[in-house]
Structure formats: structure tokens, C-alpha cells
Amino acid sequence: MKRFFVALSIALSAFSATSDFNLSAAPSSNWPQWRGPDAQGVSADKNLPTEWSETKNVLWKTELPGRGFSQPIIWDRKVFLTSDVEGAAAPDTHKPPKHMIGDKEFKHPDWDGVGKLHTFKTLCLDRDTGKILWEQTSYEGAVYDYRHKRGNYAAPTPVTDGKYVWAYFGSEGVYCYDFSGKLVWKKSLGNIGTMGMGVGTSPVLHENLLILICDQEFDGKDSFLTALDKKTGKEVWRVKRPISVSWATPVIVKTPQRSELIVSGNEFLISYDPKTGKEIWRTEGLKSHAIATPVVGHGLVILSSGYPSKVITAVKLGGSGNLDGTDKIAWRYNKGTAYVPSPILYGDYVYLMSDAGILTCLNAKTGEVVYEGGRVPVPTKFYGASPVAFDGKILLTSDDGDTFVIKAGPKHEVLGTNSIGEPCRTSIAIADGKLFIRGEKHLFCIGAKANVAKASD
To answer: Looking at the predicted structure, is the pLDDT value of residue 454 above 90?
Structure first.
């Protein structure tokens, strides 16, 4: 276990937020949370653009304040995201917490961020023009803890129900705004220790509840899962979790029998009743960093990790109690996963991606290898964005801002390569027949028309 703890050494970036996965859900062109309407990175939209550049098929390009890894979310004609604007030096009296592994203090050479003052912003843009409609300061001041130098404090993706939008900034709080930008409520969940790596998990909506996972430190003694009333911010339930620090966003799976909130973790994989927080089932954990969002399909939930161990576990839905050693564990696999990006389940296949963008395709039902070693055309790194899929295609976006279009199916084929011309660590969002790509400095809207507008002018 010590090897696992000491191995923590890389940035944690834009990760997750999910809502209900309904096997009979109607297609939606909104993208209301991390990984879209079903939290799976899959869009039902057709005729989306598959070719673009810094100018080609760019409908608009808007400069954003500060930096952020949160994925844009879209509801009708509004786009929401968060950002961190780094300011002057923090007061000398401000001290971050100590992080301990047993009786020894843990320090990381790549810690950053805590020495500056920060302004955390929640923004709303017009979907059709890219104009910033409103910009609210959610938090301003010193931050509780470090982040990795390659990470970002505005990493969690917001979530919306079409009336309100909720933004989460870890120790610096949860904020609810209406669509006009009015602050409805804010709430502190207390100081959340993430071993100085930053917060990655995103809020999840279920009916009238906003659910947040707060796994902490390497001992996990302060880890918890909580549900807030989405209209007031009042805590409805809270349960302790026997899990050390994680960055994965859970998924809510709606089956004919019940809804389950399924949460990844190092020590255990656990399913909860989202209405009460009561545990439904658990099984052996990933024994590794929990960052990837679970994928769901074919009566299975598939949970994975990429560092320091590569572990994929497929669990049959509908179980209860301790599932270890039962037929509810459908299959396991131990190669091909990335540290940060989540896999994607599209059709009959699960696609795993390494940090170098090398694809492995598995049969989702059996875990059987369909192909492995599928490469992108140029050497690059994938430490940020997770894949998205639509219309028989899978998009892989590298840290350099290149997006590779891969043909979905049992044979690996690269259909094209596109670039926005600036680094990118954030997953693509899809809505209204358009792609929304967040680069290091700009938000790009990619569409079929080639009229270029720069909304920040």
C-alpha cells in the first residue's frame, strides 16, 4: 500500500460530473454535466463536424479569464464553465495543511498554487455567439491547500437542471446560481484534504439532491459522501466512506429495480442508494488512484484506474451486500488504461486509452480483447481530456490540443486529425450539432458553417 501512496506524482485535471443513466432515456442535445446527458461521453447528435482548425469550421472563439479544466456544460442557448484567476502573493501568515502518511509528513516537489491569491469565477456564455452573458466571482482569497503544478483549482465541472447551475470548488465551497447569474445559495463543506493534488470530482444531480464525494487524505478517516437539497443547500444526508483520497466522479445508474450511486475507490467500489446514502453493495477496490468515471452498459458498470496499477473491473448491476467472490464480478482486465482520462463504452465495445493515446478495444459484455495497440498518428500525451463519441466516431483530444477522429468498431482506423492551435486539457462537450472545445485560453465552438467570429473582440 505504501508503494501506492508514495507513487502520487502527476497532475489531476478536469474530471467529472454525472446525472441519471436511464436505459430508455430519450436523446438530448443538451450537455448538462460532466460527460453529457448520460454521464458517458456519448452524444446522439448526427451530422457533427469532423474537420476543423484554428479557423476552419470555427463558429466563434471566446477568450476566457484565467484558466480552468472544467468541461463546458450546455443547456439550450447557455454555456457554463468555471475558471481560476491567479492573483498576487498570499499573505506570509497563510499556511497550507500538513499531509501525513502515518507519522511521516508527505511533501511533493510539484505542489503549487497555495502561495497566491485566487479568484474563482462561474461564467455563462451565449451558445450561438460566444458572448459572455455574465461572470460571477464565486470565491476570492487564499486557498486551503496546494494543487499539482499541472492541475487547476477550477477542475470540477458544473452541473445544471435547466433552471439552476451548481459550481464546486472543493474547500472553497459550492455555489448555486440561477440562469440570470443571481447567487441562490452557497455552502462550505469544510476543508477537504487531497494530499495537495487538488479536487477533481464533480457534483452529481439526482432528483432534488446535489451529491458530492469528498474522499480525503491517505488515511481516509475524514472521507464522506453528502447530499444537499439542490434548492437550498441544506444537507439532507451524509455518510462516512472507508476510502482514501480520490478524484473520480460517481455515476447514477437507473435500472428497472432501483437507482444506484456507484462510486470508484482505492479500497472499495461501493454502490449507494442516492436518496439516503445507504450502502447497497461493495466489492474490492482498484488498489490504485480512483480518477476515471465509471462507464455503464449491457447490465454492467465498469470501473477502472490507470496508475500505479492498471485495473478494470466489470460488475453486474442488481447485486447487494459483499460481491467479492460472486458471479456479480463479470470480468477483469489489467492493461491499457490512462492515469486521468476515463474510458468510453460505445455500442458493444469499451475503448481504453493509455497516456500516449494507444487504444485497446474490449468486448463490453465479456472483457475479451477485440484489438490492442491502436495508435494515433503523432507522438503526444493524454493527461487531461476523456474521449467522447458520436455517429460511429470516437474523439481523442491530446494535451497539445489535437483531436484524433477514430472509427468506432472492431478495427482501429484513424479518420482524421484536427487542432485548435493551443493546449487543451478538457473534454469536448457536444450540443445542438456543435462541438465546444476549451483550450488553454479560449473556448471554441466548432460547427458546420465556416463563418468565423471572435466574440471577445
So the answer is: no
Dig out the grid coordinates for 233 from the structure.
443547500
Residue 421 included in any domain? yes
Backbone angles phi, psi at 401, to 5 degrees: 90, 10
Q: How many domains does the chain have?
A: 1
Angle CA 84–90–93, to nearest 5: 145
- pTM of the model as a whole: 0.93
Query: Which residue type does 148 have?
Result: H
Let me know if residue 65 belongs to a domain: yes
Q: Is residue 415 within 8 Å of 405, Cβ to Cβ?
A: yes
CA 299 to the chain's CA centroid: 22
Q: What is the CATH number of the domain that holds 283?
A: 2.130.10.10
- For residue 356, the one-letter residue type is A
Mapping DSSP to helix (H, G, I), strand (E, B) and coil, where does residue 219 land? coil
Per-residue three-class SS string for 321-385: EECCCCCCEEEEECCCCCCCCCCEEECCEEEEECCCCCEEEEECCCCCEEEEEECCCCCCCCCCC
Q: What is the pLDDT of residues 378-433, one digit of tens each?
A: 999 999 999 999 999 999 999 999 999 999 999 999 999 999 999 999 999 999 99
Q: Is residue 83 packed enough to be buried (19+ CB in 10 Å), middle (13-18) or exposed (0-12)?
A: buried
Sheet holding 224-229, edge to edge: 204-206, 209-214, 224-229, 235-240
For residue range 184-240, what is the model confidence (pLDDT) as tens digits?
999 999 999 999 999 999 999 999 999 999 999 999 999 999 999 999 999 999 999
Q: Cα–Cα distance between 360 and 396 in angstroms, integer?
A: 13
Structure confidence at residue 256 (pLDDT): 85
How many Å apart are CA 457 and CA 455, to the nearest integer? Answer: 5
Q: Which three cell numbers mark 189?
A: 463543506
The parent domain of residue 96 ranges over: 2-446
98 C-beta neighbours (distance < 10 Å), count: 10
